[in-house]
Amino acid sequence: MNNHLFGSSSPKSFNAYPKGDFDLESGTFRRIRKPKNSVFGPVEMFKSFTNRLHYCYKMHPLLVFLISLSLGIIILIIVSFYESRYQITGSYQKSDVVLDSYPFAKLQNLVMVAGHSVYTSSSCGKVDNEDSWFLESYQKHPGQASTFLAHIEEGIDITAKDDGALLLFSGGETRKDAGPRSEAQSYWAVAESKGWFGQKESVRWRALTEEHARDSFENLLFSVCRFRELTGSYPKNITVVSYDFKEERFEQLHRSAIRFPQARFFYSGTPASSTAKEAALKGEALVRTQFQEDPYGCIGSLRRKKIGRDPFHRSIPYPKGCPEMEGLFRYCGTATYPGSVPWT
């Protein structure tokens, strides 16, 4: 018996029955082909869908068009519905925030004191001294400072008599050499130094400032907007405090320009100093003529004057706080503003 050595371990294995199908005719085994892995991913699905859609479109073009149109309309309706719901919800939330943020919502009437100068003294002990104020050449008259105090006191007295009034001192940073101090803040500081002329408890908490106006028209326009910012509504009545010789300018020209009802507009004027009265009347006649030709102060000399009274290039925030007045703020023309206003 012959022994065959194949190695040091167990005998070598072999396939007694090879894998595959036996072909009787050829006497051989055929290997079975392994099926390829079928990957039917998103790309193949999309291609299949587009192919079927293309086939359907060839067979029934009108039907496919109508189905596509219907789906588009349904999607548009759904999107519009949710968009409108979002906008309504957002507006309600915004309204709630705004309503809660008005600190003087119960006040209905506006008392506006128009500023005419900037207080520059480091001490409030000399408020009736002309050297304590920055005065233009046409203002340098004895007793001029006292007229500013008269306006402040008059505004406080009117406000004290009306529990529903908001007092605004109006006037911007109009003088370069006076530094970045506003006329409105000057008047408020003087009122504070004077103890609000005996009306501190009644008036101080509802006396604020409007610090962007550069002329008399803006004193009125900006103060109405500022009132809206603080109260959430527009003034039922307006009282303007300034010099007596400016009454026609405010009552006839500025009030008419913003189309505020005459029956709800009041004016309280105090006299100029005796030494300045004649020059003041001549100057007022000229300015009144300019506003008759340019009621909104947006062209010519009035516009140039406003630019000169903005030496620190302050950005005016209005009409952000009074959106109902946006058209009025944007308007520039010689005719009366034809758009809608929120107080008529």
UniProtKB/TrEMBL annotation:
Protein's UniProt keywords contain Transmembrane: yes
InterPro entries: C57A10.07/YOR238W
GO cellular component, one term: cytoplasm
Domain of life of the source: Eukaryota
Record keyword Transmembrane present: yes
Transmembrane segments: 62-82
Keywords, comma-separated and alphabetical: Membrane, Transmembrane, Transmembrane helix
Name of the molecule in the record: DUF218 domain-containing protein
